[in-house]
User: Fold these one by one.
Assistant:
Number 1:
Amino acid sequence: MLTAIYPGSFDPVTLGHWDLIQRAEKLVGHLVVAVLHNPTKRPAFSVAERVDFLRELVQPYPNVEVTSFHGLLVDFARERNAQCIIRGVRAFSDFEYEFQMALMNRKLHSDLETLFLMPKEEFSVLSSRMVREVGSMGGDISGFVPAHLCERIAARLKDSGAYV
Ligand code: PNS
């Protein structure tokens, strides 16, 4: 049974992330969606909020788990006996960063493969950064985040007033 980790910041989760989770869970036995706890960044949403949003989404999928991790992804992968990492590529602009990260992870853990999946074309220009920017200025984010989380995400972004 293949265990895969889908790591990310998910600040906040977008329809692109959600599309990728649904594609990945069909391919692997166990999918661990892992939110990076990065003390050097000031995220719009706390790790607990991001984990809660994702847990609500994956509730119908018993083979999908949501958690957070600190430090190196390869160490977390070893801890969880994961054989592969799932990452999304939306456009050519994602490629260089993803390529470097995949090769670095493979240098650090030679048995760990990175699988790249493409989200639906309509999500190819969608990012958490854009959701934060549009939402914090009161714009409509309903086309970008899962419907039943939209109100909560929009309210938090508007309140924070943070234009990231
Ligand atoms: O959603 P993001 O911000 O593009 O996700 C990036 C993430 C969390 C996958 C990446 O920053 C990561 O794996 N960080 C953990 C630290 C690490 O392992 N770094 C070495 C790989 S370059």
Note: The chain has one domain: 3-124.
Number 2:
Amino acid sequence: MLVDAPADPAYFSDALPQHIADDLTERGWSQHNIFLPADLTLALAAECRGLTRSGALQSAGVGRGRMQAVRPAIRGDRILWLKAGQSAACDRYLRIMEHLRVALNRSLYLGLDEYESHFAFYAPGAAYLKHLDRFRDDNARTVSVVIYLNPDWLLEQGGALRLHPLGKCTEDISPQASRLVLFLSADMPHEVLPATRDRLSLAGWFRRRPDKPLTPAFNGLG
Ligand code: OGA
Ligand code: MN
């Protein structure tokens, strides 16, 4: 259960979900430089840092089920999955993403029906080689989300998210605090480049029910 907290005003306008939906349909990804309220970004960054320091994050694996393995040369982050009720800041964030999920469903017809998210911490030098977020045997992950928690990030500190849109030039997006990036999980190869400083983020996925047939709108993308 989400802990009681004052409801966040719907501080993103109706235009934002529509903009995201248009971007995802036209080019498979979308970027917004200021998404979460500044105080929430700060609280989430402090929580991620505290949890990292206390050893609560675990080395992330690659693959799924019995095939899952920690392969630091492929994926070097440490993660902690969010649970409703773990903190007021996480619950505020999860409420906002729920609001976004409902709004996206109005314009995107992808049938997004839940959101899962984890904190991620990349120590200097850690990276995540080029990959897709959708598993071969599970098509539930539909829209990938990343929200960055790093104030005053400089380009020369590296750590970009590099998108590889099919048939187009790569796009590098630096992990500046408050920035939101979304992309289609099935169609967008991407990687995390190593940085010279700690790199904190929230990664998340809007999921469909796995048995739901792909809609024509979805098939038409990418
Ligand atoms: C992931 C991922 C991108 C980023 O966690 O699967 O690709 O910029 N993250 O942190
Ligand atoms: Mn990924």
Note: Residues 159 and 193 are 5 Å apart (CA to CA).
